[in-house]
Amino acid sequence: MPDEPKNAVRTVGITKRFPGVVANSSIDFDVIPGEIHGLLGENGAGKTTLSSILAGYYQPDEGEIYVRDKLVRIRSPKDALKLGIGMVYQHFSLVPRFKVTENVLLGLDVAGQDVKDLKTLANAIIQRAAELGFAIDPWAEVSELSVGEQQRVEILKILFRGASIIILDEPTSVLAPVEVEGLFRTIKSLASQGRSIVFITHKLVEALEFCDRITVLRSGIKVGTLSRSGLGSAREIVQMMFGAEIEPTATRRVTKVGEEVLRLDGIVVENELGHEVVRDLSLTLHKGEILGVAGVEGNGQKELAEALASIRPLKAGKILIAGKSISGSNPAKQYDLGVSYITDDRVGEGLVRDLNVAENVVLKSFRKPPYRSGLVIDWKRVERETERLIQEYSIIARGPKSVTRTLSGGNLQKLLVAREMSGNPSVLVANQPTHGLDARTTQYIHHKLVEQASQGTAVVLISNDLDEVFSLSDTIGVIYRGQIIGLLPREQATREQVAHLMVGLRE
Amino acid sequence: MSEVIDPIIVMFLTFFFGSMLRSATPILLTALGETYGESAGVLNLGAEGMMLIAAFTAFVAGVTANSVLVGLLAGMGTGMLVGLIVAFLVVTLQADQIVVGVGFDIAAVGLTSLGLRVIYGTAQLPLLPPRETINIAPLSSIPIVGALFDQPFMVYLAILLVPIFYYGLYRTRFGLKVRTLGENPMVADTAGVNVFLLRYVILLLVGAMAGLAGTYLSLFQVSFFRDNMTQGRGFIAIGVTMFARWNPVNVLFASLLYGGAESLAGGVQALGFLRTIPNEVVLMLPYIFTIAGLVALARRARLPPALARPYRREL
Predict the structure, then answer these.
(1) What does the domain layout of chain B look like in residue ranges?
(2) B276-304: string of b/e by CB count within 10 Å (b at 16+)?
(3) CB-based contact A78 B180, cutoff 8 Å
(4) Which of A67, A449, A474, B77 is 20 to 30 A removed from A358 (C-alpha atoms)?
C-alpha cells in the first residue's frame, strides 16, 4: 500500500494580481487528505481567486502548488481535472438546456474517465446519488431542477471526473436551510471516503460547526489557519476576518410612527406560470416604519416586491400610496411617485454591468430635472452626484466613469442601494438587500436602511434572514403561501413564533 | 397517366424537381457549416464573402490547372483560410463577430471583382466544360421525379453530409462540446475543453463548407465566375440555419424549401407561365420565402445564449 501523502494540496507563496488589485498575496495553504477545510473571509478576501487557481481557471503570477506532495503546474482546468481537483463554482457551471447525463458526460473523456453510453452513465448516476443519500433523475433537463438539485448534479459531475480534492465555492449561499443540512451530510460522507474538501464560506457559524480546520483570508493575505482543537471563539475569528472587532448590527431606535403612506388592499399577483402566488394580501405601512417580511423563499416575496414596484400587474386588489390608488402604474411612474425598489437580483435587474457607475446612478432619474436639462442629460451634474454617492457609501470604484462590471459584489450592492435611496423615496422596497454580502457590508446597509427610515421613509424589508428582520423591523409580517399569516410588533415577537409561522404553523 | 397531364406541366415539374436540388445545394452546404458555427456560439456573418472568394479561387485554379479537383481543393482551402483569419480575429483578438463578418462580405465583392480583372483583363473569360451529372440508374428513369436522381456529384455529397452532421452534433461527445460552447463556454472551459482551440476547429469547418458551396456555384452550377455571383446566398444560408434551429435535418428541409422557391421562379420564367405577373415578382420568391420563414420563427426563436460573444475567463 502506498504511503498516504501528507498533504492533498499545498500551496507555497501563491500571488495573483488583477489590474489594480492584489487578489492573493503570497498565500501558503494546505489541505490534509480526508479533511474538511474551511476557507473563510469577507467578500473580496481572495477565497475564490485562490481556489480558481487550484482549479486551473486562473494562473498564479508567483508561487508553487503541490498535489499529493508532488510539485505540479496547473495550466488549465484540464490539468486540474487530471490531478483530481474539481471545483463547484458559486454560479454553477451547468448547461440548463442539457440533461443531467449530458452535463455529467461533458469533460469525462478529458479527465480520463469513460463510460460506454448514456444509459450506463444514467445508471451510474442513480447509483452514485444513492450512495450519497439522495435521488436524482438522470434524464431530467437541468433547468427543471431546483437549485439544491443542481448543486447535487454539480457535485456528482465532479465525482464522475474522478475528483479527490473538491472545492465548493459558497455552496450554502444558494440553499434553503433544510437543504444546507443535506449538503453537509453529503460533504461529510465524501470526506469520510478520504476525499479532501475545501469549503469556501463567509458564514462563520457554518465554518465553526462543520470544518476540521479553518483558514482565514483578509484582503488577499492569509491571516492564519486554526485546527479543530484550537478553533477558539467566534469573536476571535471575526477579528481575524475583519482586523478589528465590528460593532453589533444596527438596532432600531424607538419608533415614532407617522401617517399611513402605503396600503395594500387584498392584492392578488400571479407568477410567470399564471399561478396566484400572492393571494389576497393586505397591509398598511406608515411613515418611518420598517416592516420586515419574513418567510421561506418562494412564498410570493419576489412577486410581492415586484407588484409594489409596479413591475408586475395586480390580478386583483389595490395598492394605495398616500391614500391614492395607483392601479395602471408602471415602474417609471411608480419611481416618480416615490417608490424605490432594491431588487434581489442586483446584476440581472438592478444594474447594467456594461454601463459606467454614473450611468447606473441616473438610470431611473434621468427623465426629470435636475439630471435632465432640456433635451439632454446633464452629465456633469450626474457625475458630481455619483462622486458624492461613492464617497458617502464608500463604494470602491475608480470613479463615476469606471465600468460597473469591475466592481465587486458588495460594492455593486452598495451602488444599487445608493441609487435607490438617493431619490429620498417615501416607500422603499428592499428584497434581500444583504443577500450574499459579507458582514461589514451587511452592517453598512443595515445602518443605511435605519437611517432612511428615520428620515421618514416607509421601508418594506423582505428577507430570508431572521436576524436581519429582527434587528431592523418595527413590525414583522410573516409571509406564507402568498399571504401574511402573522403580523407582530417586533417587541412582542419571538423567533420561535416567527419560525413556526414561516413554515405555516399557526399553533 | 402521362396522357392526361399536359406535356408543358410534365416539363415544368421535371425541371422543378431537377433544379430544386441544385438550387438548394449551395445553401445546404453553407448552412450545415453555419449550424456548427452557431451551435458553438460563433456567428459567421462572413459566409457570403467566404462563398464568393472560394467561388473565385476555385474558378481560377480550376481553369488554370484545367482540373475540377484542383478547383475544388482550392475553393475549399480558400474557405478554410478565410475561416482561420476570422477565427484569429474573433477568437484570439475577440473582435466583434458582426463587424468582422460584414467586413469580409464587403471586402469579398471588391477583391473578387478586382482579381478577375487583374487576371483576365477585359478579355472573354475562359470557360470550363460543364460538369457531368451522375444518374442513379433505375431511379433516374422514373418520369418527372427521376430528375432528382440525375445530379452533379456535389449535390449527392451535400445530402450525404446531412446525417453525418446530425450525428456529429447531437450524438457524439464532440457535438456535446460544440453545443456547450454555444450555451456557456465557461462550462466547457471548466470541464477541461479547450474553448479557443475548438472554436478555431469549428471556424475551419465553417470555412470549408462555405468554400465547398462557393466552389459549387462557379464550377458545378455554372462553369464561370461572375461578379457577386453568390447573390445573397450566404445570408440566406444564415437565415436557413436559424430557421432550422441548428438541426442539420431541418437544414436540409429548409434548404429544399428555398431551392424549391428558386426553381419555381426559374421554371415559371423559363416556360412562360403566368405572364401577367411581372418577372421581378417571381424572382423575389426565394427571398420572400426566407424572410417569411424567419418572421414566423422569430416569435419562438431561442438563440444559443453565447452566440456572437467572445469568451474570456472571468468570475
Answers:
(1) 7-122+156-298
(2) eeeeeebeebbbebbeebbeeeeeeeeeb
(3) no
(4) A449
ipTM: 0.86
Which chain B residues are Cβ-neighbours of A89 within 8 angstroms?
Answer: 190, 315
Find the helix or strand (DSSP H, E) in which B295 lies: helix B279-298
Nearest CA in chain A to B189: A77
Which sequence spans correspond to the domains of chain A?
Answer: 9-242, 260-338+423-502, 354-412
Q: In chain A, what residues touch B96 (CB-CB under 8 Å)?
A: none
Tell me if B162 sits within 8 A of B252, measured CB to CB. Answer: yes
Q: Chain A closest CA to B28's CA: distance in Å?
A: 26
Give the closest residue to A278 by CA, choosing from A316, A310, A320, A331: A316
CATH of A9-242, one of 3.40.640.10, 3.80.30.20, 3.40.190.10, 3.40.50.300: 3.40.50.300
- In chain A, residues with a C-beta closer than 8 Å to the C-beta of B313 are 57-58
pTM for this prediction: 0.78
Beta A36-40 vs A196-201: how paired, if at all? parallel
CATH code linked to domain A260-338+423-502:
3.40.50.300
A95 at B interface, C-beta within 8 A: yes
Closest alpha carbon within chain A to B173 = A106
Instruction: Name the CATH architecture for the domain at B7-122+156-298.
Output: Orthogonal Bundle (1.10)
Contact residues for B181 (Cβ-Cβ < 8 A; gap 6+):
B39, B40, B41, B188, B193, B195, B198, B199, B202, B306, B311
> Is A109 in Cβ contact with B191 (below 8 Å)?
no
